[in-house]
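Mods, move this if it's the wrong board.
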Amino acid sequence: MRKALLFSLILLALPSAAAAKARHKPAPAKTPVVVELYTAQGCASCGEANSFVGKLADRPGVLPLTFSVDYWDYLDWADTFAKPEFAARQKAYVTKLSLREPYTPQVVVDGQAEASGAKTERVDRLVKDAAKAPRNPPDIHFVKGRVYVGSARAPKGGGEVWLVRYDPRAQDVAVKAGDNKGQTIAERNVVRLERPALLVEDVDPEVRATAIRGLGDMLSTAAFDWLSSILMGSNPKPNSQP
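Not the wrong board. Structure tokens:
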């Protein structure tokens, strides 16, 4: 199973499949920096990281994603957003980034570097450094409920395109038990779902497509190639897909 979870982001939307294949395409937007926060509502030391990542959501050129993990649920409070697959995603970074173990709050920037979310100055520096790093993403477009992956150099060993759905709204959760009992936890860009979309063994000029289901809600959608360190595309506006 592939466990490298590296990615960055390109935001792009075209009005039709024909436009996606058109010879004269608009220049893609500058690739934003993806910031993953691994946190938990039962984590007593995560408040500052949650607040900082929430502010990053307002910074141009940055896409923070909040992944709630479930391994602190035994401390009398079950995180309302946590899923086992999010903790598994974080654990995959342990090997990739040569860490001892997963922890909270942890921030991973563009899948390339990590730091404690409590060290906000360090995180800010990683974000700024990532913004300066070169990127060469393939063509990808969201068109009428489908994501189109076009011409690009295939990553070594192939790759998988994953869809991530997240809620861009601020979420305030009243914690009623555990270490944070009586506190209100503020979170933003909370990831609610991630799933594989298609396998990319050899990306060629033929446009490949996969349907995106269940878009009649307030969630935003991003698509990632999680092997080649390239986020392939994003639907930047909720409810813009039929």
